Structure prediction request, 559 residues.
Amino acid sequence: MLTTISLSLLVQALINGLLLGLVYTLISLGLSLTLGIMGVVNVAHSTLIMLGSYLALELLQRLGLDPIISAVIAVPVFFLIGVLLERLLISRVARTSQTTGLLVLFGVLVVIEGAAILRWTTDTQVLSVSYTNASLTLAGIAIAVPRLIAAAIALVLVWLLDTFLRSTLYGKAIRAMAQNRDAARISGIDTDRLSLLVFGLATATAGVGGVVLAMIFPFDPQDHYRWLAWAFLVVVIGGLGSIRNTLLAGLLIGLIETVSSVLFPFQYVYFIVYLLLVVALLVRGQGLAGSQSRAL
Amino acid sequence: MMRHAADVPAGSGAPSPNGLASNANAGLSMRGVTAGYYSHDLVLNNVSLNARPGKVTVLLGPNGSGKSTALRVLYGLLRPRSGQILLDGREITTVPPQRRLALGMALLPQGRSVFPELTVQENLEIGGWLLGRDRRRLAAALEAVYARYPLLKEWRQKQAGSLSGGQQRLVEIGRMMVADPRVILIDEPSVGLAPVIVDQVYEEIARLKEEQRTILLVDQNVRAAVALADYIYTLEYGRNNLEGERGAFEDRLEALIKSWLRF
Prediction:
């Protein structure tokens, strides 16, 4: 009896882990893109995720919009925010040094977080919709409907981005720019304009990531650091420049989180995940930005 | 006839005394360019060069004399502190590198510059970026390159990074040729390649010359470069040193190379 319960618990944990992993992939993609393609360590990434959550909240409270629709609306809204950030800030500091960029983006983090506290206070919020507490039960295994929807949205976005980067000429140009910026420029590619596109896409994934996170977790303006750590972990494990590797790493983190929460007391889960971050950084000796190369 | 830069009257304003004053505006030239990465350490000091149309112009000099920097300035990858870059008499000093291809210029950089994680075909598509929105023209340009370099067609589905150094060089040349450039800047084409491949690379440059393209070649492989050259410049310590037709240099090659070995 005990073994059947723990087995179904484990299967449930595995399924939940995969669903969460898809969401973690989505919130990490932007970080991987900006770091891998532009060499920008966007520490403000998680505040953009947090803004995505509040976009969903506002649209729900003011207009009664379902978060699924908010996820669609978040794409152009956050794309625009990303383009503005790149044009007004990143493009001006990126050429100086990575450290300067890091400081400026830390400033962005502080400003967004402060503004969010002023606007929404530090109260914890939840998105409450008709299916918030619904679950599907299959062969004794219960799956929360919001997680299923969040994972489906994440999967669609990951697939779209992967297809864009693989199959379109713009996508190939972005990959070319990531692999050799100078060679891309001498081939006629306007790398400044492509950087706008990349930052816009990265920010759009953060915004949608925030919407889907809000479907499954409570949120406040200050708990985004957790997602920053998660996203960095996914990027460190998955490496840069490959959406498929990011997906694998995201699924792995999701599985580790849910499975360890079945096997160990709750408070150990964070410890395990952060330990994994330390180990991953040690193993990947070259650090985060190890894959930059220059030909000229 | 070979001249020393010191023979040139200072401040004459003419690009450089190549005996073709009437033709001074054609081709690609730099006039009085001073450039460097730091203000206290200038790599080029008042350098003037002219790559005449349809000719091979070779830029020689010992290590650190500023040859590669001259190419970077000519292609817009480094902005000069003073001086001008002219293409057929039109000033292009501040035109960014991504817009040079549209002017009919191309640069074959030193060392590996393929996009290693893209396939050969994708590398060529990037070379045709400017035609990108015109699918049919892009396809035609790729077919032309495949016809010119049949090996590339065989490798089209391979990842460029999985090819050997010599094969990658061919991909780089193919990628450059998608845009069918008139003026080609080549930086150290033989560095890091097996001798057999090196010969093929120079044969290809000879073919580009036959096709009447304007070529500016920077090379440490002095003999091979001079064999192709119509006109030769040498740089020393970032300044113009000697220049002249190939004939004037052939007898002096040994002495020249020896003098550079002192550096």
